[in-house]
C-alpha cells in the first residue's frame, strides 16, 4: 500500500453495529500508525471536503464506538451516478483524496456502496492516482451477495425474535377478553430476512409467530384470514409478522393499495405501513380485537440487545478492511464465510467488489414453508447462529446506556467548494 | 389470619414485571406453608371456578417468574359492576372462596382492581365469610394514588428512554439527507407519565427528545409545528414523543379527529394512532421527511430491559401482600413509599383500599415545562430513580431470553357452572 491516510465513510441506513466497524477500522489503523479521516455524513462529506480527523479522538471514545448505535460520523442516502453521467463527482473524490493524501478509501455500506467503491478504484487508476478502495459490508436487510450474512442484520434479527417472544407472552395472557391478533411490522424492504428471523422466537407447534408475511410472496387476503382464524381458534391468539415490503396482487405495497390502503386526511397513501392495513382487514372480516406495533428505527438502533456475534463480525470486517488495504488489495470487500453451522464458525475473506456491486440476495425459496407463512429447518439452520450471544453496552448510574459522542474535529479545507448533484 | 389458601389473580393489562409480583406472593406463601391458588385469566377465572394449583409448580419455575414478562396465569379486562347492580357476582366469588377454603384474596391490578378487592372484602363481611382482601399494585400507566409509583411503570419508562436515545442517534446520523422528524408514540392513556419518562433520555439542551406531547395538554398544531421547525433548524433533526392519549381542541384523540385523523379504506378512524397523524401534519405543513414508531405492546413486555428497581418493587409488593394478610390486615394495599430521592430509598407500607380505589393520579402541573413540551427538574427528580439498574433475564444457548411457561394445573371444580355478566 502507498503511504498516506485512510478515508472511512458510512453509507445508507445505519445500524446498531456500524460504529463497531468504525472502531475496527480506527483501532487497527492506529496499531499500524496510519491516520484515519472520516467523511462527515458519508460520501457527501468526501465530495464537500468535510472531513473529520479521528486522530483527535481519545482512545476510550473509539473503543466506545463498539457499543454505540447510529453512525458516529453521519451517513447519507446518496448514490453517485454512473461514470458517464457524472464523471465530475468521481474526479472530485480523487481531487479530495490527493489534497489530503488519502491512499485508502473504505466505504461502509450495502450494494450501492460496493459499486461506488469499485468505480472510485477504477477512476483512480484512470487518473493515475493510486488509491486502494475497499467496500466494507453493512446492511440490516442482509441482502448482499457473496458474504454469508451482513453486519447489522444479526442484531435486528435478535431484536425482532425477542420482541415477538415478549409481546406474544403479553397477548397470550390477555387473549381471553382482549387482543386476539397482534401484528408487528418489520423492515427489510424487498427481502424477507428480518421477517424470517422473527421465526426464531418459536420452537414448537403453536409457538408465536404464527404467521410470517414475506415480501417474496404475493399477499393473499383469503389465505391470510383463514390462517388467522384457524390460529385464534386453536391457540387462542395469533401473532403476525409482516415485512414492510409485502405487496398485493396489484404489485403495490399493502399500504399503497387502493383496495386496502390507509389514507390520511390529505389523501396520502402509505401513511401507516402494512400492519394497520392488515389490522383493519382482520377487524373487518373476522371481528377480532387487534393491536399492532411498528418499531421502525427502534429495531435497527437497539444496541442494548445487539447480538454478540454481530458486534464481533462488524468489528472484524473493519479490521480486515484496513489489513487488506495495507497488504495492497484493491476493489475487494471483506466478506463473512461460514465454515460450520453447529458449532457456528466463521472467518473473513476478501471477495472482489465486481461480484458484489449492484446484486441483491433474496431469501432462498426453501427458507419459506410450503404454505408461505413460516420458516423451514434450512432457514433456522442459517439464521440461528446470527443472533447468538449478548453484548450489552455499559450502563451509567442513571440506568441508561453510556453511548459515546465523538468530538468530530474538522480537517481544514484545502480545495474550492463543490456542490454535489442532487 | 384464618387458615386456608390464598387466591391470587392478575388484572388488566400485564407488564414486564407483574410475574415478579406473582413470584413474591408464591415464594413468601411457600415459606409460610400457605397454599396459593391462582385464578385463570384474572377475576373471570375466580368467577368461573377456573383455578390453578401453584403448589404443583417446580421451585425453579416460580423463581423464573421474576424474569418472565406477560401474565403467567392469564389476565383479563373485566370490571365487576357495583354491588347493587350485580350482587350475584360478588356472592359467587365468596361461594368459590368457601368451596376451596380461600381465606386470602390478592388482586394484582390498578384502580378498578383495588375497588373490586375492597368490595369483595365488604361482601365477605356481610355474608359472614372471613376473607382478607389485599389489592396489589400494578400498572404501567403509573396512575394509582397514595403509592409513590406503580410496579410496571419503571420498566416501561426505562424502555422508552432507551428507545428515544437509541433511535435519535440513528436519526441524527442520517438527518442531512434523510429523516428529519422522528415521532414515537407511547402508552399511558390519560396520564403522561410514560411520555414524561422519555425526557430522561436527554441531559442537556439540544438532546432528544425535543418535543413531548402530554395528554394533560390540549394539542396545539401551530405551536407544535413551530417548535418542530425551530428544532430542525437548530439541531438538524427533531425527535417527538407523543402520548397515545393526546387530544385536540375538539376533545377527540388525535387519530379520531375529523380534521387530522387517519381513516382506512373502510372509513374507520383511530387506525393508526397519534404518531402517523402528526407525521402527516409535519409533511403537509413543513415538508420534512419523517419516520414514526409505535412500539405498542413491545414497551410493556420488554422484560429484557426492565429496571432492576422495578423488578425489586414488584416482588416486594407481592411479598408484603402475603405478610399483611398473614398479619390479619384487610382491605389494604402494599404501597411504595419514597423516603429519599438521592440516594433513592423506598419502603413498603399498608394503605387502605378506600383511599386508592377509583382514583386516578395525573401528572402534577409542575412536572411539565412552561411551554408544555418538556419535563422540569421536579419531574426528573421523581422519575430518575425509577429506571435505575439492570436486571436482564438469563439467556439460552440460542441467544434468546429463557422465559418460563408454567404447567398451570387446574384445580378440580366443586361448584355448578357460572356465567359472568358481559
Automatic annotation (TrEMBL), chains A, B:
The record marks 138 as: Important for catalytic activity. Residues 5-293 form the Phosphofructokinase domain. Catalyzes the phosphorylation of D-fructose 6-phosphate, the first committing step of glycolysis. Uses inorganic phosphate (PPi) as phosphoryl donor instead of ATP like common ATP-dependent phosphofructokinases (ATP-PFKs), which renders the reaction reversible, and can thus function both in glycolysis and gluconeogenesis. Consistently, PPi-PFK can replace the enzymes of both the forward (ATP-PFK) and reverse (fructose-bisphosphatase (FBPase)) reactions. Pathway: Carbohydrate degradation; glycolysis; D-glyceraldehyde 3-phosphate and glycerone phosphate from D-glucose: step 3/4. The record marks 112 as: Important for catalytic activity and substrate specificity. This is Pyrophosphate--fructose 6-phosphate 1-phosphotransferase. Signal peptide: none annotated. GO terms for cellular component: cytoplasm. Belongs to the phosphofructokinase type A (PFKA) family. PPi-dependent PFK group II subfamily. Clade 'B2' sub-subfamily. Its main location: cytoplasm. Diphosphate binds at residue 13. One of its GO terms (molecular function) is diphosphate-fructose-6-phosphate 1-phosphotransferase activity. Substrate binds at residues 139-141, 187-189, 244, 297-300. Coiled coil: none annotated. Non-allosteric. It comes from Luteibacter yeojuensis. Gene3D superfamilies: 3.40.50.450, Phosphofructokinase domain. Homodimer. Keywords: Cytoplasm, Glycolysis, Kinase, Magnesium, Metal-binding, Transferase. Mg(2+) binds at residue 111. The active site is at residue 141. It is found in: Cytoplasm. It catalyses: beta-D-fructose 6-phosphate + diphosphate = beta-D-fructose 1,6-bisphosphate + phosphate + H(+). Its cofactor is Mg(2+). Its EC number is 2.7.1.90. It comes from the Bacteria.
